[in-house]
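One-letter codes give the sequence; the fold follows as C-alpha cells. An example follows:
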Amino acid sequence: MLPEGWFRRPLGEIARITSGGTPDRAEPSYWGGDIPWVTTGEIQFNTIVDTAEKLTAAGVENSSAKLFSPGTLLMAMYGQGKTRGQVAKLGIAASTNQNSAAIHLQDGHIPDFYFQYLWWKYESIREFGQSGGISHLNAGLLKQISVPVAPAAEQHRIANVLAVWDAAIATTERLLANSRKQKQGLTLKLFFRSRQAGWPLVDFDEVFERVTRKNIEGNTRVLTISGAQGLVSQRDYFNKSVAGANLASYTLLYKGEFAYNKSYSAGYPLGAIKPLLRYDSGVVSSLYLCFRFRDETSASADFFRHYFEAGLLNESISCIAQEGARNHGLLNVGVNDFFKLRLHVPSIEQQSQVASILNAAEQHEKSIEVQLEKLRAEKSALMQQLLTGKRRVRLPARAEARRA
C-alpha cells in the first residue's frame, strides 16, 4: 500500500519508450565519429559517460539509431547471462543499438528515482521478459511495468539518499579491485621471482598421492568446484543437486584433500585445483582428479593452495593435455602424466613464509568483500523501504519552511 500522495502508473503512461539501431557495418563512413553508441553490454546499473564505439552524423542519419539526451534511462532488452533487464542512465548524449530500450520520462518524473526503482526490480523485470514464451524484453512489455509515482521533491530526496550508498559501494569496489591487483602482484613476485632464485624441482607424486576411495559410506554431500568459493556443496551453489541418485562411484574426499576439475572455467583456462576446506567430507564426480599430501611429506597446505591458485601448473598441464582433446571444455589429462608434473618446492620454512604473506593479503581482500556485501545489503533494505514509501525522506525543517 502506497502512502498518501503516492500512486501507481504503468511506465508507459509517464515515459516514452523507444529503441535505437545499428548502422551498416559495411559502410566505414558511419563509424569512428564522435557520437557515443551504447551496446547492451555497457548497460550495467551505471551512469554512462563514454562508450567503446562511436558513430558519425551520417551513421545516425542513415539508420534507425537516434541521439538520446543526458538523463535518458536505458534498459537492455536482450543479452546473455545477467545482461537482460539491467538499467543505466545516460550522463551524456548518446545513441544506442536496437537491443536497448530508451526511457524518456515526462517532466516531473525524476530519472534518478526511476533508475533506482528499475534497478531494484531487476529480477522481476527479467521474469516479466520470460512471459508469453519469449526470452527477451520489448517496448510493449516495458510500458506495462507498474511504477510508483511520488511527488517530485520526494523522488529527488530518495534518489539522493540512495546515491550516497552508490558512492560508498563504488568506493569499496575500487578498494577491492586495488586489493586484488596488489595480491596478484604480490603472488607473482613471491612465486615467480623466488622460483627463479632456485627452488628445487620435484615430481608431483613425491609430494602428493592420488585419492581414489569410493563413496562406500553413502556420503550425500556432492561437491562442485567454484572459482570464487572453492569446493562447495552443489545444493549451496545451485540450490539443488545436479548429480545422479547413485553416488557410490563418486570419489570421497576428506578435509584438506585436493580436487582438480579438468574443465575450463572463467579465470581457469586449464582447469581449477581446489582443496576441501568448508566441510569435513564430501564426494566429487569421478571425472575430477583427486589427491592429498603423502604422509611423509612436510608441506604447507596454504602454500600449495596459493601455488595452484596462481596457475603455476598451467604451462605444464598444457603440455600433457592431448591435442584437440577438449570435450565440452574437458581436458584429456592422463593420470600418470599429471603425477609426473614438476613442482618448484622450497623448504618448509620458505613455504610457511610465503603462505603467511599471501594469507594476510587474502584476509585483507576478504574483509573488503565483507564490507562491500554489507553495503549492498544495506542499500537493498533501504530501497525496499524508500521506493515503496514505507519510509519517508523529509527535508530538514528550515528547508521545508523555505519551500513553503
Summary: The first strand starts at residue 7 and ends at 10. The radius of gyration is 27 Å.
